[in-house]
């Protein structure tokens, strides 16, 4: 009976979001309340679980996500992302332009959320395609692949950060393992796959969807641009390197522990970048803060959805559903990481949004983290890979690709959907391989 209630709750969530078009935040809260009642919890206990789940989940990830979106906004508005794209274009030349686009998406995708990165970089795709007289998808798909992989796999993006918090994974190890998996996934599903797309889509290079790019002389320097984008990664790596170099220095140890916290790394980065990409280049502090405020408004609903998914997870935990699921998972013959990937892929196909699929899976798959053979860092990546599988007509990113590149639905399925599925399958293969090696 317990499993039937779980299946009903998941189906109800899917129906509310996809068919009834209910806001995902409201859908999660409604299903969480109903689930608690169906499982026989006192209503006051259900409310307490919802409050605890929402508060605990947001309390652990909200600051990092907000700081991340602020950094992304500054990188976009300052022209740093544009500078990186131009530099990669000049560095690689026409022969390896698809790899240049992939590397640009990889670097810019660390601080930028997918939709922001897409809108920001798509004019550059059209510009490069026009300059070299190359098909749009051949030039653009590698960049979109990199943006998607970074969004689905790696912190500080919302879904990976939520999964890291829920499963108590190590953010540094998850990021490191994620990079190992992300690089081959981007290369295979990006430049290599895009070579098969040269005959798909229009060859016309008109582009009217985006605002004009900044003049080249107004762009920040390439060192400033790349360092500002990658500074969180640099700081966290430095925090783990310092104790090795200065083993017996208590001050260095304290400093490294301080810098190793993702919140501190992001806060330091935003502070430094506010100066290097903003104040030093003549922008007023008030204007920069207005940009930050707008960025937080854009991410507000994502934060609420993440919090409400945490509420549903907490209800599942407090109702002792997790114990029932844990018993089933321990006795299951399917590899736990494969099971996590499959479950998340199904949610992605049903729900559309990679972020919603990932945070939903966090609640349903929470017992897997207690499986004796599961590496929680790889569990985060397995769910992240599954959340990218099979993007189709219920995903906003599908329509962004279709409309901006002037594709038919069939062509978008042949290009975008296949690319996303490739990334997901390659990600799963990487996770399972690492699980064998570690």
From TrEMBL:
Residue ranges of the TM segments: 30-50, 57-76, 96-129, 136-154, 174-193, 226-246, 258-278, 299-317, 337-366, 378-398, 418-437
A Pfam family assignment: GntP_permease
UniProt main location, coarse: membrane
Alphabetical keyword list: Cell membrane, Membrane, Transmembrane, Transmembrane helix, Transport
GO molecular function: gluconate transmembrane transporter activity
CC annotations in GO: plasma membrane
Entry's localization field: Cell membrane
Membrane topology type: Multi-pass membrane protein
Xref: InterPro entries: Glcn_transporter (IPR003474)
Homology family: Belongs to the GntP permease family.
Protein name according to UniProt: Gluconate transporter
Native organism: Mucilaginibacter rubeus
Lineage, highest ranks first: Bacteria, Pseudomonadati, Bacteroidota, Sphingobacteriia, Sphingobacteriales
């Amino acid at each position: 009976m317990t499993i039937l209630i779980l299946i009903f709750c998941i189906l109800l969530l899917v129906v509310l979001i996809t068919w009834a078009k209910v806001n995902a935040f409201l859908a999660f809260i409604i299903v969480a309340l109903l689930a608690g009642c169906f499982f026989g919890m006192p209503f006051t206990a259900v409310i307490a679980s919802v409050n605890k789940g929402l508060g605990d989940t947001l309390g652990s990830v909200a600051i990092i996500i907000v700081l991340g979106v602020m950094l992304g906004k500054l990188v976009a508005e300052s022209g740093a992302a544009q500078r990186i794209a131009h530099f990669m274009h000049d560095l690689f030349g026409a022969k390896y332009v698809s790899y240049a686009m992939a590397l640009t998406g990889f670097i810019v995708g660390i601080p930028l959320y997918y939709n922001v990165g897409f809108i920001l970089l798509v004019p550059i795709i059209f510009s490069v395609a026009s300059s070299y007289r190359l098909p749009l998808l051949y030039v653009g798909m590698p960049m979109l692949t990199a943006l998607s992989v970074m969004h689905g796999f790696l912190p500080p993006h919302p879904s990976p950060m939520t999964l890291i918090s829920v499963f108590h994974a190590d953010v540094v190890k998850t990021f490191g393992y994620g990079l190992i998996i992300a690089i081959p996934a981007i290369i295979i599903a990006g430049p290599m796959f895009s070579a098969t797309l040269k005959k798909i889509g229009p060859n016309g290079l008109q582009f009217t969807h985006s605002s004009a790019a900044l003049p080249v002389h107004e762009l920040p320097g390439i060192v400033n641009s790349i360092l500002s984008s990658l500074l969180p990664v640099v700081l966290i790596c430095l925090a783990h390197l310092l104790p090795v170099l200065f083993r017996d220095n208590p001050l260095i140890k304290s400093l490294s522990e301080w810098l190793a916290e993702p919140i501190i790394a992001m806060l330091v980065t935003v502070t430094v970048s506010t100066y290097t990409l903003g104040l030093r280049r003549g922008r007023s502090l008030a204007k920069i803060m207005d940009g930050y405020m707008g960025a937080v408004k854009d991410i507000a609903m994502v934060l609420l959805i993440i919090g409400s998914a945490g509420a549903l997870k907490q209800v599942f935990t407090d109702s002792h559903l997790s114990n029932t699921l844990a018993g089933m998972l321990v006795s299951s013959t399917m590899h736990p990481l494969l099971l996590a990937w499959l479950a998340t892929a199904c949610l992605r196909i049903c729900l559309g949004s990679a972020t919603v699929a990932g945070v939903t899976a966090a609640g349903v798959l929470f017992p897997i983290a207690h499986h004796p053979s599961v590496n929680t860092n790889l569990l985060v990546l397995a769910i992240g890979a599954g959340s990218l599988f099979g993007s189709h007509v219920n995903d906003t990113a599908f329509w962004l690709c279709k409309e901006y590149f002037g594709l038919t639905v069939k062509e978008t399925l042949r290009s975008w959907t296949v690319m996303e599925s490739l990334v997901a399958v390659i990600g799963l293969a990487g996770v399972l391989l690492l699980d064998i090696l570690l």
